[in-house]
Amino acid sequence: MSVTAAGFKRFARQNIFIPVAQTVRIDVALEVGAASAGDFGSYHAEPIDPRAAGSEPSIMIFPYGILVNKQGKRFVDEGPGTIDAFYERQTRRIYEQQDGLAYVILDAKYQKVPNYRLAIRSDRPPIVAKSIEMLAEALQLPPQKLRDTVDSFNAACRPGNYRPLELDGVGTIGIDPPKSNWALPINDPPYHAFPIISSNVFTFGGLKIDSCARVLNPDGHAIECLYAAGETVGLYYRNYTGATSVLKGLVFGKIAGGHASRAGQPIESRGRSAK
Ligand SMILES: Cc1cc2nc3c(=O)[nH]c(=O)nc-3n(C[C@H](O)[C@H](O)[C@H](O)COP(=O)(O)OP(=O)(O)OC[C@H]3O[C@@H](n4cnc5c(N)ncnc54)[C@H](O)[C@@H]3O)c2cc1C
User: Fold this and answer.
1) Is 200's C-beta closer than 6 angstroms to any atom of ligand 1?
2) β-pair type (222-227, 18-19)
3) Tens digit of each residue's pLDDT (9 = 90 or more) over 230-242
4) What residue numbers bound the domain in which 59 lies?
5) Nearest C-alpha to atom 7 of ligand 1 is from which residue?
6) N or C end of the chain, less CB within 10 A?
7) Best of 88, 121, 122, 202 to mutate for ligand 1, by most ligand atoms within 8 A of CB?
8) pTM (2 decimals)?
9) What is the CATH number for 218?
10) Does 211 fall in a domain?
Protein backbone atom coordinates (compact mmCIF):
# COMPACT_ATOMS: atom_id res chain seq x y z
CA MET A 1 0.00 0.00 0.00
CA SER A 2 1.31 3.48 -0.84
CA VAL A 3 1.88 6.13 1.79
CA THR A 4 0.44 9.59 1.15
CA ALA A 5 2.42 12.75 1.86
CA ALA A 6 0.27 13.41 4.95
CA GLY A 7 0.75 9.81 6.12
CA PHE A 8 4.49 10.05 5.69
CA LYS A 9 4.67 13.25 7.73
CA ARG A 10 2.67 11.55 10.48
CA PHE A 11 5.05 8.57 10.54
CA ALA A 12 8.08 10.85 10.45
CA ARG A 13 6.84 12.79 13.48
CA GLN A 14 6.75 9.47 15.34
CA ASN A 15 10.25 8.61 14.10
CA ILE A 16 8.97 5.63 12.09
CA PHE A 17 11.18 4.70 9.17
CA ILE A 18 9.67 3.84 5.81
CA PRO A 19 11.63 2.31 2.92
CA VAL A 20 10.63 4.24 -0.21
CA ALA A 21 10.82 1.25 -2.56
CA GLN A 22 8.06 -0.50 -0.64
CA THR A 23 5.69 2.19 0.47
CA VAL A 24 6.38 5.78 -0.67
CA ARG A 25 6.10 6.61 -4.36
CA ILE A 26 8.62 8.95 -5.95
CA ASP A 27 5.96 11.62 -6.51
CA VAL A 28 4.95 11.49 -2.83
CA ALA A 29 8.59 11.82 -1.75
CA LEU A 30 8.91 14.88 -4.02
CA GLU A 31 5.73 16.25 -2.45
CA VAL A 32 7.24 16.05 1.05
CA GLY A 33 10.29 17.98 -0.12
CA ALA A 34 12.70 15.46 -1.65
CA ALA A 35 15.17 16.63 -4.29
CA SER A 36 15.26 14.84 -7.61
CA ALA A 37 18.29 13.40 -9.38
CA GLY A 38 18.88 11.67 -12.69
CA ASP A 39 17.46 12.70 -16.06
CA PHE A 40 13.65 12.65 -15.87
CA GLY A 41 13.53 12.99 -19.66
CA SER A 42 15.48 9.86 -20.40
CA TYR A 43 15.55 6.12 -19.97
CA HIS A 44 17.81 3.08 -20.26
CA ALA A 45 17.52 2.07 -23.91
CA GLU A 46 18.08 -1.49 -25.05
CA PRO A 47 17.94 -2.78 -28.66
CA ILE A 48 15.28 -5.47 -28.97
CA ASP A 49 13.53 -7.50 -31.66
CA PRO A 50 9.97 -6.11 -31.97
CA ARG A 51 8.70 -9.47 -33.28
CA ALA A 52 9.71 -11.38 -30.16
CA ALA A 53 7.35 -12.50 -27.42
CA GLY A 54 9.88 -13.41 -24.73
CA SER A 55 11.31 -11.12 -22.09
CA GLU A 56 14.30 -8.93 -23.01
CA PRO A 57 14.81 -10.13 -26.62
CA SER A 58 17.93 -8.04 -27.10
CA ILE A 59 19.83 -7.94 -30.40
CA MET A 60 23.46 -6.95 -29.81
CA ILE A 61 25.01 -8.52 -32.91
CA PHE A 62 25.28 -5.31 -34.97
CA PRO A 63 29.05 -4.78 -34.40
CA TYR A 64 29.47 -7.68 -36.86
CA GLY A 65 27.22 -6.20 -39.56
CA ILE A 66 25.69 -2.89 -40.55
CA LEU A 67 22.60 -1.07 -39.30
CA VAL A 68 20.22 0.42 -41.85
CA ASN A 69 16.99 2.39 -41.51
CA LYS A 70 13.78 2.06 -43.54
CA GLN A 71 15.41 4.00 -46.38
CA GLY A 72 18.13 1.33 -46.55
CA LYS A 73 20.75 3.84 -45.30
CA ARG A 74 23.38 3.47 -42.62
CA PHE A 75 23.13 6.09 -39.87
CA VAL A 76 25.58 5.16 -37.08
CA ASP A 77 29.03 3.68 -36.42
CA GLU A 78 28.19 0.05 -35.64
CA GLY A 79 31.52 -0.60 -33.93
CA PRO A 80 32.80 2.48 -32.06
CA GLY A 81 33.87 0.37 -29.07
CA THR A 82 32.75 -2.60 -27.03
CA ILE A 83 29.03 -3.31 -27.33
CA ASP A 84 28.36 -2.96 -23.58
CA ALA A 85 29.76 0.58 -23.58
CA PHE A 86 28.02 1.78 -26.74
CA TYR A 87 24.76 -0.10 -27.33
CA GLU A 88 22.63 2.43 -25.49
CA ARG A 89 23.90 5.36 -27.56
CA GLN A 90 23.42 3.33 -30.76
CA THR A 91 19.91 2.33 -29.68
CA ARG A 92 18.98 5.99 -29.19
CA ARG A 93 20.03 6.58 -32.80
CA ILE A 94 17.76 3.69 -33.86
CA TYR A 95 14.90 5.38 -32.00
CA GLU A 96 15.49 8.55 -34.07
CA GLN A 97 14.97 6.70 -37.37
CA GLN A 98 11.62 6.51 -39.16
CA ASP A 99 9.17 4.45 -37.07
CA GLY A 100 11.98 3.98 -34.52
CA LEU A 101 13.03 0.95 -36.54
CA ALA A 102 16.32 -0.33 -37.97
CA TYR A 103 17.64 -3.60 -39.34
CA VAL A 104 20.98 -5.22 -38.74
CA ILE A 105 22.28 -6.71 -42.01
CA LEU A 106 24.72 -9.60 -41.64
CA ASP A 107 26.43 -12.09 -43.88
CA ALA A 108 27.50 -15.64 -43.06
CA LYS A 109 30.68 -14.52 -41.29
CA TYR A 110 28.94 -13.44 -38.08
CA GLN A 111 28.16 -17.07 -37.25
CA LYS A 112 31.89 -17.71 -36.96
CA VAL A 113 32.23 -15.24 -34.07
CA PRO A 114 32.73 -17.34 -30.90
CA ASN A 115 29.55 -17.46 -28.80
CA TYR A 116 27.71 -15.13 -31.22
CA ARG A 117 24.36 -16.59 -30.09
CA LEU A 118 24.77 -14.81 -26.74
CA ALA A 119 24.30 -11.53 -28.61
CA ILE A 120 20.89 -12.62 -29.98
CA ARG A 121 18.25 -13.19 -27.32
CA SER A 122 15.23 -13.05 -29.62
CA ASP A 123 12.98 -16.10 -29.84
CA ARG A 124 12.44 -15.30 -33.55
CA PRO A 125 14.81 -16.45 -36.31
CA PRO A 126 16.65 -14.05 -38.60
CA ILE A 127 15.16 -13.08 -41.96
CA VAL A 128 17.32 -14.93 -44.50
CA ALA A 129 17.93 -14.34 -48.23
CA LYS A 130 20.42 -15.44 -50.88
CA SER A 131 21.10 -11.92 -52.14
CA ILE A 132 21.03 -8.38 -50.76
CA GLU A 133 18.20 -7.48 -53.16
CA MET A 134 16.10 -10.44 -52.01
CA LEU A 135 16.80 -9.52 -48.39
CA ALA A 136 15.68 -5.94 -49.11
CA GLU A 137 12.42 -7.22 -50.58
CA ALA A 138 11.81 -9.45 -47.56
CA LEU A 139 12.37 -6.44 -45.28
CA GLN A 140 10.35 -4.09 -47.53
CA LEU A 141 13.38 -1.84 -48.00
CA PRO A 142 14.23 -0.18 -51.35
CA PRO A 143 16.39 -2.91 -52.98
CA GLN A 144 18.65 -0.64 -55.03
CA LYS A 145 19.25 1.65 -52.06
CA LEU A 146 20.25 -1.25 -49.83
CA ARG A 147 22.48 -2.60 -52.62
CA ASP A 148 24.17 0.83 -52.93
CA THR A 149 24.62 1.05 -49.15
CA VAL A 150 26.23 -2.38 -48.94
CA ASP A 151 28.43 -1.67 -51.99
CA SER A 152 29.71 1.63 -50.58
CA PHE A 153 30.30 0.04 -47.20
CA ASN A 154 32.19 -2.89 -48.74
CA ALA A 155 34.31 -0.51 -50.82
CA ALA A 156 35.25 1.40 -47.64
CA CYS A 157 36.49 -1.74 -45.84
CA ARG A 158 40.25 -2.22 -45.63
CA PRO A 159 42.34 -5.36 -44.98
CA GLY A 160 43.39 -5.71 -41.36
CA ASN A 161 43.92 -8.10 -38.49
CA TYR A 162 40.26 -8.88 -37.75
CA ARG A 163 39.79 -9.96 -34.11
CA PRO A 164 36.07 -10.19 -33.30
CA LEU A 165 36.42 -10.34 -29.51
CA GLU A 166 38.60 -7.27 -29.03
CA LEU A 167 38.83 -3.75 -30.41
CA ASP A 168 40.72 -4.56 -33.59
CA GLY A 169 40.78 -1.14 -35.28
CA VAL A 170 39.71 -2.77 -38.54
CA GLY A 171 37.70 0.22 -39.68
CA THR A 172 36.32 1.78 -42.84
CA ILE A 173 37.96 4.61 -44.74
CA GLY A 174 36.19 7.40 -46.62
CA ILE A 175 32.60 6.66 -45.63
CA ASP A 176 30.16 8.52 -43.38
CA PRO A 177 29.29 7.28 -40.84
CA PRO A 178 32.44 5.23 -40.41
CA LYS A 179 32.61 1.80 -38.81
CA SER A 180 35.57 1.86 -36.43
CA ASN A 181 36.10 -1.82 -35.60
CA TRP A 182 35.22 -5.23 -37.09
CA ALA A 183 34.51 -3.75 -40.53
CA LEU A 184 34.44 -6.77 -42.85
CA PRO A 185 32.72 -6.58 -46.25
CA ILE A 186 29.17 -7.93 -46.35
CA ASN A 187 29.58 -10.29 -49.28
CA ASP A 188 29.25 -13.84 -48.01
CA PRO A 189 25.70 -15.21 -48.51
CA PRO A 190 23.27 -16.16 -47.16
CA TYR A 191 22.40 -12.75 -45.75
CA HIS A 192 20.61 -12.42 -42.44
CA ALA A 193 18.68 -9.55 -40.83
CA PHE A 194 16.96 -8.79 -37.53
CA PRO A 195 14.63 -5.82 -36.95
CA ILE A 196 15.57 -3.67 -33.94
CA ILE A 197 13.67 -1.07 -31.92
CA SER A 198 14.54 0.77 -28.70
CA SER A 199 12.96 -0.57 -25.51
CA ASN A 200 12.60 1.33 -22.23
CA VAL A 201 14.23 -0.81 -19.53
CA PHE A 202 13.76 1.80 -16.79
CA THR A 203 13.55 5.56 -16.46
CA PHE A 204 16.50 7.64 -15.26
CA GLY A 205 14.73 10.09 -12.93
CA GLY A 206 14.35 9.49 -9.20
CA LEU A 207 15.23 10.78 -5.76
CA LYS A 208 18.48 12.30 -4.54
CA ILE A 209 20.17 10.48 -1.65
CA ASP A 210 23.35 10.79 0.39
CA SER A 211 25.95 8.11 1.09
CA CYS A 212 23.74 6.76 3.94
CA ALA A 213 20.83 6.32 1.47
CA ARG A 214 18.90 9.12 3.19
CA VAL A 215 16.69 11.12 0.85
CA LEU A 216 17.91 14.71 0.56
CA ASN A 217 15.98 17.93 0.16
CA PRO A 218 17.06 20.55 -2.42
CA ASP A 219 19.31 22.20 0.22
CA GLY A 220 21.23 18.95 0.63
CA HIS A 221 19.83 18.12 4.07
CA ALA A 222 18.53 14.64 4.87
CA ILE A 223 14.76 14.31 5.27
CA GLU A 224 13.97 12.65 8.58
CA CYS A 225 13.00 8.99 8.35
CA LEU A 226 13.08 8.72 4.56
CA TYR A 227 15.46 6.33 2.79
CA ALA A 228 15.66 5.26 -0.83
CA ALA A 229 17.48 2.60 -2.83
CA GLY A 230 17.23 0.85 -6.20
CA GLU A 231 15.09 2.28 -8.97
CA THR A 232 13.64 4.99 -6.75
CA VAL A 233 17.07 6.65 -6.69
CA GLY A 234 17.88 8.90 -9.63
CA LEU A 235 21.44 8.47 -10.83
CA TYR A 236 21.87 8.37 -14.58
CA TYR A 237 22.28 11.15 -17.11
CA ARG A 238 22.63 10.59 -20.87
CA ASN A 239 24.06 7.07 -20.65
CA TYR A 240 23.48 4.04 -18.41
CA THR A 241 26.60 2.60 -16.84
CA GLY A 242 26.38 -1.13 -17.51
CA ALA A 243 25.51 -3.61 -14.74
CA THR A 244 24.95 -0.91 -12.10
CA SER A 245 21.20 -0.93 -11.50
CA VAL A 246 20.89 -4.09 -9.40
CA LEU A 247 24.22 -3.13 -7.85
CA LYS A 248 22.97 0.25 -6.64
CA GLY A 249 19.83 -1.43 -5.28
CA LEU A 250 21.93 -3.94 -3.38
CA VAL A 251 24.49 -1.48 -2.06
CA PHE A 252 22.15 1.32 -1.02
CA GLY A 253 19.44 -1.09 0.15
CA LYS A 254 21.94 -2.63 2.59
CA ILE A 255 23.23 0.77 3.67
CA ALA A 256 19.68 2.10 4.15
CA GLY A 257 18.65 -0.89 6.25
CA GLY A 258 21.75 -0.67 8.42
CA HIS A 259 21.47 3.07 8.93
CA ALA A 260 17.73 2.99 9.64
CA SER A 261 18.08 0.16 12.16
CA ARG A 262 20.73 2.13 14.03
CA ALA A 263 18.74 5.36 13.85
CA GLY A 264 15.33 4.07 14.84
CA GLN A 265 12.88 1.24 14.74
CA PRO A 266 11.54 0.13 11.34
CA ILE A 267 7.79 0.19 10.80
CA GLU A 268 7.48 -3.61 10.43
CA SER A 269 8.65 -4.28 13.97
CA ARG A 270 5.95 -1.98 15.32
CA GLY A 271 3.27 -4.13 13.73
CA ARG A 272 1.57 -1.21 11.96
CA SER A 273 0.39 -1.04 8.37
CA ALA A 274 1.29 1.95 6.21
CA LYS A 275 -1.66 4.15 5.33
C1 LIG B 1 14.26 -6.22 -18.92
C2 LIG B 1 15.16 -5.75 -17.82
C3 LIG B 1 16.48 -6.14 -17.81
C4 LIG B 1 17.34 -5.70 -16.79
N5 LIG B 1 18.63 -6.12 -16.79
C6 LIG B 1 19.45 -5.74 -15.79
C7 LIG B 1 20.80 -6.20 -15.74
O8 LIG B 1 21.24 -6.97 -16.59
N9 LIG B 1 21.60 -5.75 -14.73
C10 LIG B 1 21.13 -4.91 -13.77
O11 LIG B 1 21.88 -4.54 -12.86
N12 LIG B 1 19.85 -4.45 -13.80
C13 LIG B 1 19.02 -4.85 -14.78
N14 LIG B 1 17.72 -4.39 -14.82
C15 LIG B 1 17.29 -3.44 -13.81
C16 LIG B 1 16.94 -4.14 -12.51
O17 LIG B 1 15.99 -5.15 -12.77
C18 LIG B 1 16.40 -3.11 -11.53
O19 LIG B 1 17.37 -2.12 -11.33
C20 LIG B 1 16.06 -3.74 -10.19
O21 LIG B 1 15.13 -4.79 -10.32
C22 LIG B 1 15.49 -2.67 -9.30
O23 LIG B 1 15.18 -3.21 -8.05
P24 LIG B 1 14.23 -2.43 -7.08
O25 LIG B 1 14.07 -3.31 -5.90
O26 LIG B 1 14.72 -1.04 -6.90
O27 LIG B 1 12.87 -2.27 -7.87
P28 LIG B 1 11.84 -3.44 -8.37
O29 LIG B 1 12.59 -4.71 -8.67
O30 LIG B 1 11.07 -2.79 -9.45
O31 LIG B 1 10.98 -3.69 -7.08
C32 LIG B 1 10.06 -2.73 -6.63
C33 LIG B 1 8.98 -3.50 -5.91
O34 LIG B 1 8.11 -2.54 -5.31
C35 LIG B 1 6.78 -2.95 -5.52
N36 LIG B 1 5.95 -1.73 -5.46
C37 LIG B 1 5.79 -0.80 -6.39
N38 LIG B 1 4.97 0.17 -5.94
C39 LIG B 1 4.62 -0.16 -4.70
C40 LIG B 1 3.80 0.44 -3.71
N41 LIG B 1 3.19 1.60 -3.94
N42 LIG B 1 3.65 -0.19 -2.52
C43 LIG B 1 4.29 -1.37 -2.29
N44 LIG B 1 5.09 -1.98 -3.18
C45 LIG B 1 5.24 -1.38 -4.36
C46 LIG B 1 6.79 -3.61 -6.89
O47 LIG B 1 5.70 -4.49 -7.06
C48 LIG B 1 8.13 -4.36 -6.84
O49 LIG B 1 7.99 -5.65 -6.28
C50 LIG B 1 16.85 -4.84 -15.80
C51 LIG B 1 15.51 -4.43 -15.81
C52 LIG B 1 14.68 -4.89 -16.81
C53 LIG B 1 13.22 -4.45 -16.81
Assistant:
1) no
2) parallel
3) 999 999 999 999 8
4) 43-200
5) 243
6) N
7) 202
8) 0.86
9) 3.50.50.60
10) yes
